[in-house]
Amino acid sequence: MYRKTVSGLKDTLNIDLEKRLLDHRNRFISIFLGRYKELLPSLIVYENIETTALNQLKIETTLRNGYNLVIGQATNDKIMILGYVTNTNTPENVNNFLSRNLLDKDDIHFVVASDLIPKHLKEISYYDDCKTGNFIVLKNKALNYISDDSILQHYTIELAEIVISRFSLAM
Question: How much is the pTM?
Fold first, then answer.
């Protein structure tokens, strides 16, 4: 079971050290990635949010999870999250210049009580200098080729490899 190497050390010692290094790296990645994900939504600050019924952390967390939020004026005259849309065929989407139809009430998946939903909803548009409409669609990024999670994961793994290489040099 314990085969001696040329230097007299047991092979199991090397295997044990390798396992400890991998466990340490994996714990490091898990802790740092989780911590950065917790921290990221609190880095964004909205001005004048206190004059609305919006929750900054709810907005940022929802955006990071891939939702396109509908923010508009409810029947109680408060600006709030009304729901989300999955339809991105709108001229306000920078990734789609062929669409001419603005979003309306039928495109929204509502997350508020039905008595807060206005009778008529239309997306605010730059086509008329934002003079008509009563909601906007808020997205995490204009173009979403790579997610924030992928970026965080990449740099956390890079940092973990640096820490482990320094740790293994000391061994």
Answer: 0.74
